[in-house]
């Protein structure tokens, strides 16, 4: 009996062991299936699958929020929470505005604007260097619901007239001049009616939308208001109208229009919302670990996304201090950093070179610096290393375009030096950056070159009054096409390898060749012309004009440059004028513009001209 019990017990244990073994084998099989499925997915999706995992692990700040505040509400937030903190400083003038003072000044100007007819949806242009009331005007527009149109300070007569007409500008705010360009004279040429009509009663047949011109300062000009008068108007006006307009303003309203050549055609007005640019600025700051204790030295122009978004929107969303430089001067920049103990500074490569090479560089203590952005054109590794060594800052770089508000990718402050100087980092949070094959439309594998495209909160609302161009730039799947070629590496970082489009980037300025070509066609003696970028040590690219002359035409390089002088912006005037008999063509007779760069370099070498 005892033996029978033992046998039954053994059989029971054996049965249990068999069941456990079978269960174990089933679990093992299930694990193996999952592993095989993982491998299969990795194979199907290529190395991008692995890169996505690596990037997710790397994104410690993946949960950073997006805010629904308008820019005016951001200003009011800090005016209430940190009223005595310095918001804007002009160190060379010892001019300082706390958040409370700036908010009050903005409200005064906003009410003055309302009194002269500026309201929700009005288009207000700012044509000025980084003068103190540039930011006041911009913030006033954000509270009213008006759209601030930034005007390039290098513009000449035809460019100003084109922008004012195309944008349906209602009010133009301007300074008197910049360098040798007389803004007042140009505006009187554009609007001769100003000399005879009372202020606020402007009627222009050519510019029917234009109702006001405002001089930024205290001087008086016929037919124009000045900002001092608008402040006084605001002081004598109640808050009711302003409060009503503020209540109507939404974070998804267009707040800023910037004119860019984009990827095709003449300059177009890029419509950007509060949501676009405030959040892009916030995330930019987060990538550099900004806090309310930071002080950013801003010496880049406010009319550009670099100044108005990456700098100003970063500052206003972190409640820190913006140390302004009115017009780039390396000595003023160095002195401002030294005096104000700035923690960050921005610039294009040429600006950093000018600062490092200034004879007084060693006199200034820059040890307060910790970070900043170098962008706008190709950033040499040697320069970035010198900046990090001598200016004590970890340099980051942002890649993008105006249509993306502008940041698409950004190297993070915690990334290695090699990553920060050889790549443009990985995508902004809440965006989907893809490398897309421009011929097939399919996503590229890691290391495979394609066009960098972006989808997310930062995509522009569109081009003003130009749905066709908008549809050409943003595809049916919502991806904004940059026109730039690049790859994604195994760590998830992006590298720019070239451009599909012909646009030239000279020291951060976007230049569209067609615009210059059509201008030069008006010059007597020119039969045909093509404009292309030629590599430049100083600016990244320089403008090169390849000219075919009419038979027996007597035209020199100096003649071409003189023809351009004071008619188009200085940065658009060809640095090199090269006379050719023909252009490189495809078998079907199309001009191979990408080959002109090499043609130009060879011609310059033969002429003994060193590329600068």
Report on this structure.
- By secondary structure, this protein is α/β, with parallel strands linked by helices.
- Helices cover 38% and strands 22% of the residues.
- The chain has 19 helices and 29 strands.
- The strands form seven sheets. It has an eight-stranded mixed sheet, with helices on both faces. Strands 2-1-13-12-14-15-16 form a seven-stranded mixed sheet, sandwiched between helices. A four-stranded antiparallel sheet has the order 20-21-23-24, with no helix packed on it.
- The longest helix is centred in the N-terminal third of the chain and has 44 residues, at 2-45.
Write the layout of secondary structure elements.
Blueprint: H1 2-45, H2 47-58, H3 71-81, E1 86-90, E2 95-98, H4 99-115, E3 123-127, H5 132-144, E4 147-150, H6 157-166, E5 171-174, E6 177-178, E7 181-182, H7 183-190, E8 212-215, E9 225-226, H8 227-235, H9 240-248, E10 254-260, E11 268-273, H10 274-287, E12 295-298, H11 305-318, E13 321-324, H12 330-340, E14 344-347, H13 349-356, E15 371-374, H14 381-391, E16 394-396, E17 398-400, E18 407-410, H15 417-422, E19 426-427, E20 431-436, E21 450-456, E22 462-463, H16 467-473, E23 480-488, E24 494-499, E25 504-506, E26 509-511, H17 513-520, E27 526-536, E28 540-549, H18 557-564, E29 576-579, H19 596-606
Parallel strand pairs: 1-13, 3-4, 3-5, 4-10, 5-8, 8-9, 12-13, 12-14, 14-15, 15-16, 28-29
Antiparallel strand pairs: 1-2, 6-7, 10-11, 11-22, 17-18, 18-19, 20-21, 21-23, 23-24, 25-26, 27-28
């Amino acid at each position: 009996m005892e033996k029978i019990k033992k046998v039954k017990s053994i059989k029971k244990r054996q049965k249990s062991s068999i069941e456990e073994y079978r269960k174990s084998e089933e679990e093992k099989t299930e694990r193996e299936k999952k592993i095989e499925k993982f491998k299969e997915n990795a194979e199907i999706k290529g190395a991008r699958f692995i890169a996505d995992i690596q990037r997710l692990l790397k994104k410690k700040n993946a949960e950073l929020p997006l805010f629904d505040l308008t820019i005016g509400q951001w200003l009011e937030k800090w005016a209430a929470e940190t009223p005595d903190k310095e918001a804007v400083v002009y160190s060379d003038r010892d001019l300082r505005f706390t958040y409370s003072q700036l908010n009050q000044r903005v409200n005064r100007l906003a009410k003055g604007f309302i009194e002269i007819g500026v309201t929700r949806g009005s288009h207000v242009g700012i044509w000025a260097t980084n003068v103190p009331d540039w930011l006041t005007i911009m913030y006033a527009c954000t509270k009213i619901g008006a759209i601030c149109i930034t005007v390039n300070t290098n513009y000449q007569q035809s460019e100003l007239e084109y922008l004012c007409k195309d944008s349906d500008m209602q009010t133009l705010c301007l300074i008197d001049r910049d360098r040798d360009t007389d803004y007042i004279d140009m505006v009187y040429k554009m609007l001769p009616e100003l000399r005879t009509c009372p202020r606020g009663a402007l009627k222009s047949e050519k510019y029917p939308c234009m109702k006001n011109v405002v001089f930024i300062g205290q001087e008086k000009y016929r037919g124009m208001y000045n900002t001092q008068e608008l402040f006084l108007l605001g002081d004598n006006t109640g808050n009711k109208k302003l409060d009503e307009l503020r209540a109507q303003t939404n974070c998804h309203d267009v707040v800023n229009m910037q004119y860019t050549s984009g990827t095709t055609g003449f300059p177009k007005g890029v419509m950007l919302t509060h949501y676009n640019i405030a959040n892009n600025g916030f995330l930019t700051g987060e990538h550099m670990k900004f806090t309310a204790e930071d002080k950013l030295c801003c010496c880049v122009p406010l009319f550009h996304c670099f100044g108005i978004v990456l700098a100003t929107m970063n500052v206003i969303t972190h409640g820190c201090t913006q140390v302004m430089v009115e017009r780039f001067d390396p000595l003023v920049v160095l002195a401002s950093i030294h005096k104000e103990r700035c923690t960050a500074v921005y610039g294009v490569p040429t600006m950093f070179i000018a600062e490092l090479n200034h004879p007084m560089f060693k006199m200034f203590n820059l040890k307060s610096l910790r970070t900043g952005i170098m962008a706008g054109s190709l950033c040499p590794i040697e320069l970035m290393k010198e900046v990090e060594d001598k200016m004590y800052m970890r340099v980051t770089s942002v890649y993008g375009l105006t249509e993306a508000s502008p940041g698409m990718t950004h190297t993070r402050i915690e990334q290695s030096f090699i990553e920060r100087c050889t790549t443009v980092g990985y995508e902004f949070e809440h965006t989907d950056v893809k490398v897309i094959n421009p011929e097939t439309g399919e996503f590229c594998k890691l290391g495979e070159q394609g066009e960098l495209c972006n989808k997310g909160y930062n995509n522009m609302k569109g081009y003003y009054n130009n749905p066709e161009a908008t549809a050409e730039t943003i595809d049916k799947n919502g991806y904004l096409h940059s026109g730039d070629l690049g790859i994604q590496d195994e760590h998830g970082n992006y590298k720019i390898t070239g451009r599909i489009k012909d646009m030239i980037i000279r020291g951060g300025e976007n230049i569209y060749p067609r615009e210059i070509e059509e201008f030069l066609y008006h010059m007597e003696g020119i039969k045909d012309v093509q404009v292309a970028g030629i590599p430049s040590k100083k600016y990244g690219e320089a403008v090169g004009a390849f000219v075919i002359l009419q038979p027996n035409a007597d035209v020199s390089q100096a003649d071409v440059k003189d023809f351009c002088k004071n008619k188009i912006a200085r940065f658009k005037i060809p640095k090199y004028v090269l006379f050719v008999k023909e252009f490189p063509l495809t078998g079907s007779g199309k001009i191979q513009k990408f080959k002109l760069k090499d043609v130009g370099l060879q011609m310059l070498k033969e002429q003994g001209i060193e590329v600068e």
